[in-house]
Structure formats: structure tokens, C-alpha cells
Design brief:
With about 375 residues, this protein is of the alpha+beta class. It folds into 3 domains: about 1-115, Roll (DNA Polymerase III, Chain A, domain 2); about 125-245, DNA Polymerase III, subunit A, domain 2 (DNA Polymerase III, Chain A, domain 2, Roll); about 245-365, DNA Polymerase III, Chain A, domain 2 (Roll). The protein has 6 helices and 26 strands. The chain has helices spanning about 5-15, 70-80, 130-140, 195-205, 260-270, 320-330; strands spanning about 1-5, 30-40, 40-45, 50-60, 60-65, 65-70, 85-90, 95-100, 105-110, 125-130, 155-160, 165-170, 175-180, 190-195, 210-215, 220-225, 230-235, 255-260, 280-285, 290-295, 300-305, 310, 315-320, 335-340, 345-350, 360-365. The N and C termini lie far apart (about 70 Å).
Length: about 375
């Protein structure tokens, strides 16, 4: 194998895949990146057996071949080089020589035939959409996933496809986020999958702003095809919770407020909340919302008022300020409306404005007021 490529192009391709390499593994081969040189293109492949990632980059291929070499080592070397022309050459002994204007570096490689094969996806259902839509579907829900490994289904995003729409759902039991996207080109047949947050974070990093993303769902794996990048992810083989049961179908009151003002006020007031509960309290009246927090242990206290439109007379409810801030950060609309039932019941939040073919819903459980 022999090829020539500019340092910046090689570095860009490596950065897309190198973070898949596990820090520790009982299978040494997964510490490598597999380089495949064919035609006028390189494939760089890494895997941790749950996720396999492939990036493509054009290069001057002078001799076709393939090799598995230590991924983090080659990444560290290339990262320290300026943008010069690099020559990669290997022989039958799986030893790579990297040459540049600065010198030569020799790296011991391994037999590429022993590198884990990329997954095959059976019973493929292909979903095509603009990359910004894919980003919205993931980014507006992934923050609500659980990190509790004892509930594996909740550690991923639930994809529900059918009737010309795709829905993504995530919940950790304290909050829930859901996005709906409608398009006549989407499949009518029903299909569901749970994809891990780790895999989806790699997808987010690889999505371009003005391209098309393709998602392929099989029985055990999903495949995402972005520009110059492919990602294979093992699906979480669990049944997802019946999330519809926790979404209130009716509300007694509605609160409409400027989302940016609300977020800024919660950020400031929460600095004075109890560090354990992170509690902030909302006192609602028809035209004004008071946001307050108090840390009894240290004597800190804060209170702010902002304008709002509340359909009731008075109402008091408490939230974990961290969860409330995260929810408000994911509102793109100028205003957000909160649907309230009672102080101990789930609150549903929706943006006031949004694209006609998209629907966003977020749910947040209140916390018991400390002085109640």
C-alpha cells in the first residue's frame, strides 16, 4: 500500500472516526484504525464493536492495499504536523512508514484481515431527509435521555417511523422530550428502534448543514450515511416505555412567556438555590411571574419578576433549575407556552411558533416545594 495525501485532509478524516476507539478494550484490534486504499479514495474505519465508523477521503493512491495501525498514535502524529504532503507506505510485514518534509516515522501495524467486519444490515428501511432535520430530531430530544444503565431502553433515543412521519422520544423519568417531523416522502409502514446516545452524538458531529442524511434501520443495527462518513450502530434491544401515559391530555392553566427572558432569569436566580435540590419556585399571576430561590444553609436568596400571560389567578410550582434551563435552551421559538394541571403534576412545554411540519413537546416533572 502506498498513497500521498495532504496533512489537513488526512487529519479531517481521522478526526471523524478516532473518538470511536475505546480507551480500554479486551480486544486489542479495536485500538486500531483500518486504512483501505482503493481507486482514488481512502477508507478509515474504527470500531468499539457497538459503533463502527467509516470516513472517506480522496488521495493519490499509488499502490492499493490495506493496513490496521494504532489509531491514537497515528492521530497524535498527524495532529502535530503542519499542512504538508504526507506519504504513507507499507509492505508485507504490516509496518507503516510515514514520510514528510520533516522526517520519517515507522509504526508497527497488524493484519487488516483480523479487524472486525462492519455490520451487515438486513431488512433495511431507508429514510432520507435534510441534515438540519436530522439534527433537530436528535438534538431536541437527546438531552432528556437517562444515564442509568439499569434501564437500557432509556439510555437511547426512541425512533418511531410510520404514516409519513418520524418521531423521536427521550425520557429519564423526570423529563421527556419529543419531536415530530412530517413529510410525504417518509415511509407509511410502522417501524421502531432505540439508538444509543453515544452513537447519536457521533452522528451530530458528522452532519453537514446543507446536505442530505440517510438513515437505514435493520433488525439489529442502524446505519447513518452523511457526506463522506458512515456510522453503524447496534440498536438497543429493549421495549420502550409507554411514554404517552405520562403526557397530560388536558391542562387547567396556560403560561406564555418570552423564552429567552425566562431562561436568563432562571439562570441568575438558580445561583442562589440549594446545591442539592437546585430548586427554583415560580409564583404565577395573570401578568407577572416571580422566580425565586433560597439556600437556607448559606443564607442566600434571590427573586426576580418577569412579564407573562397566565390564564389563572395564582399558582406556585417548583422545578429543578438545571432541568428547567436545559428544557428552555431547546426552545427555538421567541415564546414558550407551559400547560399546567396542578403543582404536583407534569408540566408540558411547547414553542409558540415553529415550522408547520415539525412539532415539539417537552415535559418536566415538578419537585416538592421545600417549605411545603
Amino acid at each position: 500500500m502506498k498513497f500521498v495525501i495532504q496533512r489537513d485532509e488526512m487529519n479531517t478524516a481521522l478526526q471523524k472516526v478516532v473518538n470511536v476507539i475505546p480507551q480500554r478494550s479486551t480486544i486489542p484490534m479495536t485500538q486500531n484504525v483500518k486504512i483501505v486504499a482503493r481507486g482514488n479514495q481512502l477508507e478509515l474505519i474504527t470500531t468499539d464493536l457497538e459503533i463502527t465508523m467509516v470516513s472517506h477521503v480522496k488521495a493519490d493512491i499509488q499502490e492499493e492495499g490495506e493496513l490496521a495501525i494504532p489509531g491514537r498514535l497515528i492521530n497524535d502524529i498527524i495532529k502535530e504536523l503542519p499542512n504538508v504532503e504526507l506519504t504513507f507506505e507499507s509492505g508485507n510485514n504490516y509496518r507503516l512508514q510515514l514520510s514528510s518534509d520533516f522526517g520519517q516515522y515507522k509504526i508497527g501495524g497488524e493484519n487488516p484481515a483480523e479487524f472486525p467486519q462492519r455490520p451487515t444490515i438486513d431488512a433495511v428501511k431507508e429514510i432520507v431527509m435534510p441534515s438540519p432535520v436530522m439534527r433537530q430530531l436528535i438534538n431536541k430530544t437527546i438531552f432528556a435521555c437517562s444515564s442509568d444503565e439499569l434501564r437500557p431502553a432509556l439510555t437511547g433515543v426512541f425512533f418511531q417511523i410510520g404514516e409519513s412521519r418520524i418521531k423521536t422520544v427521550a425520557t429519564d423519568g423526570h423529563r421527556l422530550a419529543m419531536m415530530d417531523y412530517f413529510d410525504d416522502s417518509l415511509p407509511d409502514e410502522s417501524l421502531t428502534s432505540i439508538i444509543s446516545t453515544r452513537a447519536l452524538n457521533f452522528v451530530l458531529r458528522s452532519l453537514d448543514s446543507d446536505s442530505i442524511a440517510v438513515m437505514m434501520l435493520g433488525d439489529k443495527h442502524a446505519k447513518f450515511h452523511m457526506e463522506n462518513t458512515e456510522l453503524y450502530a447496534r440498536l438497543i434491544d429493549e421495549n420502550y416505555v409507554d411514554y404517552n401515559r405520562v403526557i397530560p391530555q388536558e391542562s387547567n392553566f396556560e403560561l406564555t412567556v418570552n423564552a429567552s427572558d425566562f431562561l436568563s432569569s432562571v439562570r441568575r436566580v438558580s445561583l442562589f438555590s440549594n446545591p442539592i435540590t437546585a430548586q427554583v419556585v415560580l409564583e404565577l399571576s395573570s401578568q407577572q411571574m416571580t422566580i425565586r430561590a433560597e439556600d437556607i444553609d448559606y443564607g442566600g436568596e434571590a427573586r426576580e419578576q418577569i412579564a407573562c400571560n397566565f390564564t389563572g389567578d395564582s399558582f406556585e410550582i417548583g422545578f429543578n433549575s438545571r432541568y428547567l434551563q436545559t428544557m428552555l435552551k431547546h426552545v427555538d421559538s421567541a415564546e414558550v407556552v407551559l400547560h399546567l394541571v396542578r403543582p404536583d403534576y407534569a408540566v408540558v412545554a411547547r414553542p409558540v411558533d415553529g415550522p408547520e411540519n415539525e412539532k415539539q413537546l417537552m415535559l418536566l416533572m415538578p419537585i416538592r416545594l421545600e417549605d411545603a
